[in-house]
Amino acid sequence: MSALTAMDTGELQAWLRLLLTPGVGNESARKLLAAFGSAPAVFEQSAAVLRELGSERLARAIQTEPGDLTRQLASTVDWLAASEDRCVVTLGDAHYPAALLNITDPPLLLFMLGSLVPKANANVSLGTLNGLAIVGSRNPTPQGEVNARQFAQTFGEAGWCVVSGMALGVDGAAHDGALMGGGHTIAVVGTGLDRVYPKKHLDLAHRIAERGLIVSEFPLGTPPLTANFPRRNRIISGLSHGTLVIEAALQSGSLITARLAAEQGKEVFAIPGSIHSPQSRGCHLLIKQGAKLVESAQDVLEELRLPLSFAAAEASDAPVLTQAQEVKTEHPLLKTLGFDAASLDALQARIGWPTAQLQAQLLELELGGEVARLPGGLFVRIARG
User: Fold this and answer.
1) Around Cβ 202, how many Cβ atoms within 10 Å?
2) What's the CA angle centered on 299, arms 140 and 143, to 5 degrees?
3) Cα-flanking dihedrals φ and ψ of residue 86, to 5°?
4) Strand partners, 113
5) Where do the domains of the chain lie, and which CATH numbers do they carry?
6) How many angstroms separate the CA atoms of 276 and 70, rounded?
7) Dihedral sign for Cα atoms in the order 80, 85, 91, 93
8) pTM of this prediction?
9) What is the DSSP string of 55-101?
């Protein structure tokens, strides 16, 4: 077994059994651990003692070994032995992130993979990282994806650890941006760590592991179940000093993360957008509810009272990355387009150019990364500072 875990096989088996036993949730498990002192001790108790603490149902559940425990233990031991950059941290472990002890429902176990796994001689540990969550839509606008990547890059340059969920869209762009900025990043995922979801992020997952950490509370083999993704959001906000929402529809899971952050006493930030964009309505709702409206990375860092390094401050002063940004270019088509999506017909009515000229100019701007083409024949401007 990997030297990264101080547990022997018997202790690991007890923790896995506690995690896998049907009918025993985190709250009941914490009560059992508080009463008996350790996971192995829980399973040494008689039915009578267990009934006194909980109920007949709980006693029966604890005394019934899960059918897949043997397989799960073997696969976990093999997984740990395969690399030094893997570990399992339990609620009773000294390496358990202190920030998660303060949330309402701390996970019993954390499976970890990456260069930041807890090590006695590590220069960086989870306890010393300044975490900042970036979350948002899985289907962002081109501007939203640019914002996520550039904000995260600035945070990475400033020494912050970007925390997100490795989902498509804003999450992936945020992890990528943090790595581009030379910073650390943590991905909290909703599957077992023996699989990558979505598969499109296989390369990103490898890069995150090289410069950060992938974390899951779910045992190996756990598939991408819908219910697991909102559940992991409390860990994303819990590991962070604040949560920045880039883009979110009104039913977005990002609003769950923001709500959990607020309940945990953390700062919530939101980037505004067009009043016509469904992807901005969740952010606008958060702002109405008291989230801080931000237009630059500096807005976030000033609120958290941890200033940028000199180099990062120079980098962050240039881009103002919201759709309300002042138009700095002299290109007449960009000025006409503005920051809301528009059709070819609408643009032609505004600017009065012949169709061929307009299409040629749009193609030139698209190839230059200043305009994006959206489904439905719409065009949108990309603000890059």
Assistant:
1) 11
2) 20
3) -135, 145
4) 86, 214
5) 9-113 (no CATH), 131-317 (3.40.50.450), 332-381 (1.10.10.10)
6) 54
7) positive
8) 0.82
9) -HHHHHHHTS--TTHHHHHHHHHHHHHT-TTEEEEETTSTTS-GGGG
Q: Are 273 and 322 in contact (CB under 8 A)?
A: yes
Residue 209 binned pLDDT confidence (cut-offs 50, 70, 90)? very high
- Signed CA dihedral, 98, 103, 109, 114: sign only: negative
Amino acid letter at 140?
P
Say if residues 238 and 99 touch (Cβ distance below 8 Å). Answer: yes
Tell me 162's DSSP state. Answer: E
Statement: residue 326 has pLDDT above 70: no
Q: What torsion, rounded to 10 degrees, do the Cα atoms 197, 203, 209, 213 define?
A: -40
Q: How far is CA 248 from CA 159, 164, 279, 363, in A?
A: 26, 14, 5, 29
280 Cβ partners below 8 Å, 6+ apart? 247, 272, 273, 274, 323
At 333, the pLDDT band (50, 70, 90 cuts) reads: confident
Phi then psi dihedrals of residue 318, to 5 deg: -70, -55
Give yes or no for a cis peptide into 198 (omega within 30° of 0): yes
Tokens found for residue 289: 């509810």
